[in-house]
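Fold these two proteins, one after the other.
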Amino acid sequence: MGIRFCTKGNLILVVVKEEEIIEVVKMKRKRKKVSKGRVRAAIQIQAWWRGTLVRRALLHAALRAWAIQCWWRMMLARKAHQKRRLALMSYVVRERAVVKLQSLVRMWRVHWRYCQVLSAISIIQCHWHRHDCQTCALLRGHCVVTATHLQFHIEITNP
C-alpha cells in the first residue's frame, strides 16, 4: 500500500492486492491558510537564496575563466619565448658561419701574400748567390704582418 501526492495537491491512494489494482481514490489535500506577510517573507528569502546561488555560480565561472586565461597567457608567452630563442639560434649560426668564412678568406689572402713574398725572397737569394761580389754583404729582413697585408723589408748591408 502506498500513498503519494501529485504536484497539483491531489492525494492518490493505490491499494495493491495480489497484483491487482482494486481501488484508486482521489482526495484533495488540505492546505493551511498562510498569511500574506509570511508569503512575502518566504518569497524574499527564496529570492535572496537564488541570488546567492547565482552569484556563487558566477564567481566560480569567473575563477575558472581567469584560470584558463592565465594558462593561455602562459602558453602564449612560452611560445613567444621559443620563437625568440629559435630566431636567436638561427642568427648565431648564421653569424658564426659568416665569421668563419671571413676568417678563411683572410687566412687565404695572407697565405697567398706570404707565398708571393717567399717567391720574391727565393728569387732575390738566387740572384744574390749568383752575384759574385768581393765583399760579403749581409741580407737583413724585417717582416710585418697586419690583418690585410704582409710587409717584408730587405736590406743589403756591407759589414
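Now the second one:
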Amino acid sequence: MKAIYGIVVLIAAIYVQTSTAKLQCQLAQGNIPTKWITMVDPCIKKMREQVQVELRAAVSYLAMGAHFSKDTVNRPGFAKIFFDAASEEREHAIKIIEYLLMRGELTSKVGQLIKNPMPAKESWETGVEALKDALGLETDVTIKIRDIIKECETPTNKCKDGVDCEQMYDFNDYHLVDYLTGDFLEEQYRGQRDLAGKTSTLEKMMKTQGALGEFLFDKKLLNGEPL
C-alpha cells in the first residue's frame, strides 16, 4: 500500500512540474536600437559606485538614529535628525538608480548595486561626536560626487583594442554633470554648512552648561527650533 501511495505522489509531482512549465511565459528580448545610450564606461562605473556610497551613508545615519533612540541615551531630537538624514541618503540612491535607468544603463548586474553596507561605528559618547562624524560623512559623499563630475567632464580611461577612442571617451556628459551639480551638490553644501553650525552651537552650549547644554540642544532639535 505504501508503495502504491509513493507512486501516486511521484506521478502527481511530475504532473505539477509539467503543468507549471507549460504555464511559464517567456518573452523574447526586444530588438531595441542602442544609439540613444550615450553614457561612457567611466561615468557608468562611477554612478554605480555612488549608489553604494549613498547606501552606506544611509546605514550610518540609521546607526546614529538607533543609538540616540536607546533608553540609556534618550536623545529623541538627535535621533530624529539622523533618521531623517538616513531617509534622504536612501532617496539619493534611488535618484541615481532612476537616472541610470533613464539613460539606459541598468540592463544587467542590478543586484550588484545593493550589497551589504555596514556602519563604521555603532555608538557615540556625545552629540558633538555624532555631529562631527555626520559632517565627515557628508564631506566624503560630496567628494565622491565631485569625482563623478570630474570623470564625466573629461573621461580618461584607455580605449580597448578595436574601439574608436575618440567616439568612446572623448565625451563630456553635460547632462549628467548639470544634474549632479544642480540636484546634488547644492544640497550637499547646504547640509554641510548646517551640520557645521549645529556642531559649533552644541560645543559652545556644552562648554558653558555641560550635559544640560546637550539636553537643551536636543529639545530644540526635536521641536525644530532654529539653532
